[in-house]
Each structure stands twice: as C-alpha cells, then as structure tokens.
Design brief:
5 helices, 128 residues, Four Helix Bundle (Hemerythrin (Met), subunit A), mainly alpha
Length: 128
C-alpha cells in the first residue's frame, strides 16, 4: 500500500473510531455520528483512488467518488444507496438548523460500515 493511501486509511479509521465512541456514549451526538460516518466512507474512497494513482476532485459527493472507483472496485456498486445517504450528511449537518435523529445516526453508521467493509476487502485488509 502506498504511503499516501495509508494516510487516507488512517484518517478514515480516525473518523470510524470517533463514530464508534459517540455510539457508545451515554448521550451520543447524532450529528457527529452521521458526519464522521460520512467522512469515514469519503476517506476510504479517496484512499482507493490514491492507491490506483487516480486523481480526484475535492468533493464530498460519495456517489461521484465511487463512480471513479467502480472500474477497479466493482463491488462498490452494492453500496451506492448507502453512499448517497451518507452524502446527505456531509455538509449541512454541521450547521445550525439541521439535526440528526437517532435513526439517522444508525442508518449512517450501518451505511459507513458496509462501505468501509467493501473497500477494506478490496485492499485485502478485511474488517477490523
């Protein structure tokens, strides 16, 4: 694995751990779970693209990033709905007026785990 890819994976795992921690908290911040779930998936997609030597735009649209990955990781096709869901929590959730609920956090968490698992399998590192 390339050094830059490893950095993306480490960043993605940081977001994963933050989401895990919030899910285990007595008073979870649902906005944070949704945001970090989205960030985990985004960074794993960018890790995949970095490993393939493919450039990518500085965007948060996970479906668009996944489409760039599909030629080399066709398994992503099964998580496209998950990626669309996560994209909706990339920006607006960070600002006043928009709040995630418990069910949003659970849906985002499950979506991120599925996407993370697909990409980690592609790297040959499996779920952890």
């Amino acid at each position: 694995m390339k050094a830059m890819t490893q950095e993306w994976v480490e960043k993605a795992e940081g977001d994963y751990r933050v989401a895990v921690g919030q899910r285990q908290d007595a008073e979870p911040v649902y906005d944070a779970i949704c945001f970090h779930a989205q960030q985990c998936a985004e960074k794993y997609l960018k890790a995949w693209l970095a490993e393939q030597g493919l450039g990518f735009p500085k965007i948060h649209d996970l479906e668009a990033l996944a489409k760039l990955c599909l030629p080399s990781l066709s398994e992503l096709d099964v998580v496209m709905d998950d990626l669309r869901l996560l994209t909706s929590f990339a920006v607006e959730i960070r600002y006043p007026g928009v709040f995630a609920q418990r069910q949003d956090a659970e849906r985002c968490w499950r979506a991120a785990v599925r996407a993370r698992d697909v990409i980690r399998r592609g790297f040959g590192i499996g779920p952890a």
